[in-house]
Design goal:
single chain, 178 residues, alpha/beta, Nucleotidyltransferase, domain 5, 6-stranded mixed β-sheet, 6 strands, 35% helix, YqgF/RNaseH-like_dom_sf
Length: 178
């Protein structure tokens, strides 16, 4: 009989990371190795190099996430995919896809086994603002933690989907080979 703490007997153990990609900041969250609960990690300043998804030197923001994945022996990095409420994709979606591609390439180049997967993040920032407001945090003080709170929501949603389906959530990002 499986141990009651073994949340996904069909999935290998390993922490999961959640990433909320913004224009100025990136929220980062992590789970325990069994994928039970998401917790905030940090807010990483975004590096906009104007290069899009083209391969090149690893930027400091991507390098920080790769280091966190290595430190935690992460199995998966879930990147939020911001779609419109209708499900349509826009500029922010393209930006998140490009970032996820760069992250997947950087993880592979570093010899990390973590998959990068895109998961729907509609309404996560709104939900994060509401949760912070409900906890008594004033609106002006949200900026320092809103991205982390959104990353926690992205990750917890993916963890819940893993438990419900018995498989990884979201869309796998393939590493583009030159």
């Amino acid at each position: 009989m499986p141990d009651s703490l073994d949340a996904q007997p069909g999935l290998p153990r390993g922490a999961r990371l959640g990433v909320d990609v913004g224009k100025a900041r990136i929220g980062l969250a992590a789970s325990d190795p069994d994928g039970l609960i998401a917790t905030p990690v940090e807010t990483v300043p975004r590096v906009l190099d104007g290069g899009g998804a083209a391969p090149g030197p690893v930027t400091a923001d991507v390098a920080r996430i790769v280091a966190e994945a290595a430190d935690r022996f992460a199995a998966v990095v879930y990147v939020g995919l911001p779609r419109h409420l209708s499900g349509a994709e826009g500029a922010a979606t393209a930006d998140a896809r490009g970032f996820a591609g760069l992250l997947a390439a950087a993880l592979a180049a570093a010899g990390e086994r973590a998959q990068v997967r895109l998961v729907d993040e509609r309404m996560t920032t709104v939900t994060a603002h509401q949760a912070l407001y409900a906890s008594g945090r004033k609106g002006r003080k949200h900026r320092s933690v809103i991205d982390q709170a959104a990353a926690v929501i992205i990750l917890q949603s993916a963890l819940d989907a893993e438990r419900a389906s018995g498989g990884r959530a979201g869309e796998l990002v393939e590493v583009q080979r030159a």
